[in-house]
Amino acid sequence: MKRLFLILLALSLSTLTAAAGNTPSITIPSVNISASIVEFPLARGTWAIDPWERRVGHLEGTAGLADAGNKVLGGHSTLPNGKPGIFANLSNVAVGDEVVVFDGVEERRYTVSQVFTVSADDVSVVLPTPGERLTLITCDTGSYNRNSQLYDRRVVVIAERAG
């Protein structure tokens, strides 16, 4: 189940093509994150994300950036060489912080409503939801298991559309 989640997370972070050549992006000012968003494709029940991927990715199969529902974005907390990934500081996001997503056409503002961790095999956070919600997910660096060489937990940030 952990592998399935990792693959699903990985697949959702590849190349997202935006309208009129505008590149989708995410900004979280409170933790100095500003990055383009690519598409992580879903294949054979999981997301294929390159372990060296330095961008944020939209998990294919979750709501599109311009759609209602649960839009899920993922990124690495740590790269294979031990250097910080794009979401290295995601666990430092606080309730009330602003997240700005540009979908290629429109800028959408969200307010963080929850920050928590889940077990690595808990995929409930990527499931569809009513209304418009943004879910950000990465590995919890403190849960790295040297024996399995996997992370046991994920950091999850939930943000609701502002205004």
Radius of gyration: 14 Å
Strands in their spatial order, largest beta sheet: 1-2-5-6-9-12-8-7
CATH architecture: Beta Barrel
Overall number of strands: 12
Unreliable spans are 1-20
The structural class is mainly beta
Which CATH class is shown?
A: Mainly Beta
Task: Report on the architecture of this protein.
There is one protein chain. The chain is mostly beta strands and 163 residues long. It has one domain (2-161): Sortase, Chain: A (Beta Barrel), CATH 2.40.260.10. It contains 1 helix and 12 strands. It has one helix spanning 2-11, and strands at 25-28, 33-40, 42-43, 46-47, 56-59, 69-74, 98-102, 107-119, 132-139, 144-145, 150-151, 153-161. The chain is globular and about 45 Å long.
Quick synopsis:
The protein is mainly beta and 163 residues long. The protein has one helix and twelve strands, in the order αββββββββββββ.
Write the layout of secondary structure elements.
Layout: H1 2-11, E1 25-28, E2 33-40, E3 42-43, E4 46-47, E5 56-59, E6 69-74, E7 98-102, E8 107-119, E9 132-139, E10 144-145, E11 150-151, E12 153-161
Parallel strand pairs: 2-5, 6-9
Antiparallel strand pairs: 1-2, 1-7, 3-4, 5-6, 7-8, 8-12, 9-12, 10-11
